[in-house]
Amino acid sequence: MATVTRTRPPTSTRPTPPDRRRRATIAGARRRLGILYASPMALLVVVLFVIPLVLMVWMSFNHWPLLGASAPNGVENYSALQDPLFLRAIVFTLKYTAVTTVVLGLVAFGLALLVQESRPGVGVYRTALFLPSVVGLASTSLLFYGLFNTEASPLNELVRFLGLGSVDWLGSTDNALASTVGMITWRFAGFYMLILMTGLQSIDPMLYEAARADGANRWQILWRVTLPLLRPTLALTMVLSLTGSLLAFDQFFILTGGRHETATVVISVYREAFLSQDLGRAAAVSVAILAVLILVNGAQLRLLRRGGR
Amino acid sequence: MSRARTAGFHVTGSALAVLFLLPMLWTLYSSVNSRRAAGGEPGWGVDNYERLADYGSGVGTYLLNTVVVAVVAVVVTVVTTTLGGYALARLRFPGHNLLFLVTLAILMVPYTTILVPLYILLGWIGLQNSLIGLGLVLAMFQLPFGLFMMRSSFEALPRELEEAALIDGCTPGSALWRVLLRGVLPGIVTVGLFSFLAAWNEFVAPLIFLTDGSKFTLPVALFNLQSGSLGSVDFEALQAGVVTSALPCVVVFLLLQRHYVRGFTSGALKG
C-alpha cells in the first residue's frame, strides 16, 4: 500500500472529490457562457435566415399577392417556371454566365501572372488593378452608363478616333451583353486576380526550379506545373464567378432595365414579385433557383475538394 | 535581357493600371470640370454637386441613411461574430456544430432568392421600410465570412494567454476580453471592413425593402436619378453622385488595405 502511493506521480493524486466538482462547475460555466455568447448570432441566423427559408417554401404553395390575404393553391405557382419570358431569361443568364466566366477568368489569370512576383513597384499595380473592386456594383453600373452614353467619354472618343463612328453600346442584346461583360471584367478582374495570386504564391518555387532544370520551357511549366497545382484555387474562382453571374441583377437592371431581352433570372423574380405583385410565383421561382444552385455548388465543391487532395 | 524584361513589366503594368483607373478618373474629372459644372461656361466648378445636393430628399439625407445602414451592419456583424467566434473556438456548448454549419449554409443559399420572404418577415416584425431592418439583414449575410474569420482568429491565439489571464484572477467574461480582444483586433478590422463595403454598396435589398423615398440609400437614390427622369438624364449630377458613393470606399480601402488582403490569405473566403 505504502509502496503504491510512493511510486505514483504526485500529480495523479490531485483530482480529489472537491477538485473534480470544481472542474465540473467550470465546465458548466463555460457551457452556459458559450450559449450566452453564441445566442445573438444564433438569433440572427434563425430569424433572418432559417425562418425566411421555410417561409419561402410555404409561400411557393400559396396564392400570395403583394397586398391582401394569402390562400393555399397547391403547385399552381410553379407554372411560372414554364412562362416563355422566364425561359428566355434562363437562356440569357446562362449565355451571360458562360461568357463572363471565361473572359473574366482569362483576364484575371493573366493579371495574376503579371503581379504575382514581388518586385519593386508591383504593389502600386496590384492596388490600381484591385481598386475597381471596392466600388459598388450599382455605382459601377451608373459610372459605365455615363461612359457608354456620354459623347465626350474616353470610350466614345476612342471609338471615333478609330473611325468606327458612334456605337450604341446598350442598343441590342448582343451589344448590351458585350458591354456588360466588359464592365464586369473591369470591376471584378482585380478581385479574382488577388485570389489567384494567393494561390500562385502558395506554389513551392522549388517545383519551378526543378522543372526548369529538367529543361521545361515556360509553356510546359504553365501547363504541367502551375495549372494542376492551382486547381483548388481555380475551382474556387469558378464557384464564385458562376454563382455571381447566375444571380446577376444590378448590372442589367441599371444598364438596360432588362430591355432588349436582357432580363436575367433574378430580374424576372423581381418583376414577378413587385411588378406583377405575385409573391407566391416569385417564391416558387426562388425555390427552383435555390435547388439548382445548391446542385451546382455541391458539384463544384466536390471538384474543389478532390482538387485539394 | 533581365533589364528588358523589367522594362516590359513596368510598361505592361502601368498601361493596365491606367486602363483600370481611367473610368474612375474620368468620372471624377468630369464631375467638376464641364459646362454644367461651372454655370454654362467650360471650366471648373461644383454646380453638379449642388444639383445633386438638391435632388429628391437631398443627397445629405441619402448619405445619412447609407451611414446608418452601414453602421448597423458593421456593429451587428462585429459584435455577433466576435462573441460567436469566441464561443465556437473556446467554449464547448450543446449545438455548437449545428450553429456553425447552419451559419455557413448562408453561403450556399443565393441571397437574392430569400429577399422575397425576408420582405414579408420584416413586415411581420415591424421592420419593413426600416434602415435598422435593412442593416440587420445585411449583417446576416456577412455572418459566414465573419464567423469563420473570428473563429480562426481566436483559435490562433495561444491558450497560455487565456490561462495566464485566468490565473491572474480574471473570469472568462471580464478582463479576459481585454486580453483576448487585443489579440483578435486585426480580425475584427477585417470583418468590419468587408461588412462596411458590402453594406455601403448594397443595391437589391434596399431597392426591395425601402418603400419611402426619404429612406433611400445612396445607390437606390442614384438609380432613381438615372432612371426616374424620362428622356433627359442629368449625367453630370449622376457622375457627382457616383463619386460621392465611391469615394468613401476607396479611401477606407486604401487606409485598411493590409486588413483587406488578410481576408483573402486567411483562407476565410474558401468558407
What does this structure look like?
The complex is a heterodimer of chains A (309) and B (271). Chain A has 309 residues and is mainly α. Chain A has two domains: 14-60; 78-308, Orthogonal Bundle (MetI-like fold). Chain A is 72% helix and 1% strand. Chain A has 13 helices and two strands; from the N terminus they run H-H-E-E-H-H-H-H-H-H-H-H-H-H-H. Chain A is globular, with a radius of gyration of 28 Å. Residues 1-15 of chain A have low confidence and may be disordered. Chain B is globular. Chain B has helices spanning 2-32, 47-54, 59-90, 96-108, 115-124, 131-156, 159-167, 175-201, 204-209, 218-227, 235-265. Chain B has 271 residues and is an all-alpha fold. Chain B contains eleven helices and no strands. In chain B, helix 3 packs parallel to helix 6 (131-156) and helix 7 (159-167) packs across helix 8 (175-201). Chains A and B meet through helix 2, helix 3, helix 4, helix 5 and helix 7 of A and helix 1, helix 3, helix 4, helix 5 and helix 6 of B.
User: Would you tell me which CATH topology of chain B applies?
Assistant: MetI-like fold
- Share in helix of chain A: over 70%
CATH architecture group name of chain B: Orthogonal Bundle
> Could you give me the name of the CATH homologous superfamily of the largest domain in chain A?
MetI-like
Main β-sheet of chain A: number of strands, strand sense, barrel status?
A: 2 strands, antiparallel
Task: Write a brief caption for the model.
The complex is a heterodimer of chains A (309) and B (271). Chain A has 309 residues and is an all-alpha fold. In chain A, 72% of the residues lie in helices and 1% in strands.
